Amino acid sequence: MSEPVAAPTSSGSAVVLLGPDGSLPGDALPLVRAAVAVYTTAEAPPPTLLAEQALSGSVVLLTADLDNAAAGALLARGASIVRPKPVYGGALLDAVAVMDRLRSPGGCPWDAEQTHESLRQYLVEECFELLDAIEDGDRTALREELGDVLLQVLFHSRVAQESSEAPFSIDDVATELVTKLVGRHPHVFAGGDPAVRDAHTQEHRWEQLKQQEKKRESSVDGVAMGQPALALAAKLVQRTARARLPRELLPDSPLFAAAARAKLSGEDPEGQLRVEARRFAADVRAAEQAARSEGVDPADMDDSDWRRFWPR
Asked: Which of 29, 149, 224, 250 has a CA that sits 20 to 30 A from residue 141's CA?
């Protein structure tokens, strides 16, 4: 049904679309309390009378769909539509069920054999593929790669659930995440935090709360030392800067200094270098393709050939 477009002529009238379970959207409560009349579709007066009533005061119609005469009459008089907010997460239960089926007897033999150790390479690969999708601006690939990263979380959680040593499930993972997010956002969930005034102070406050929560003894505790060296240097610089380490105490090697300058300037040296590397790879491919188009084998190119075919 196409929704009528009309100049508002009703005073606060609304058509409230109920949720699939018949629940009332929270945004509709003030309208219901202030209305002179509230009807369900079955209880509403004839459309003409309902429209006339809406002209003299706010009328609210509660309905499961918009394809009925009462809703049409109110919308024609300029009534607003209040819709239930979408509830997300239901499909995650389906994903958990599929993972359970794959790991259970009669499922997939390959999936059943995997361990945390054997899955490590896939976690790294999927994260890099996700980065590629983000940098390419490819929304379709982004959705797919996010799913592949989610698969790794589900997979590792299912493996952990079967362990005889400190087992835990996907629910434990989610519960710990919720606890962490709530605990590190007291300005949102605990009625305010004077230490948080903007995004910058929130980032600093997050690190303070993390230090307290994990009882860390060093500002660099918890930094993943196995990450790429440029990203590692940038992360260490970020952490020590928050701890107010003087800049002259940073390593003065050219590579570390370059990473430090970029990070302290608010840039992402790892991401910037990856962009430059991807651009360089694209230029190499373009030069090789240009050579082929002129009958030159890229494997036989010398310095002058490379310069001749290099993208300007």
From this structure: 224
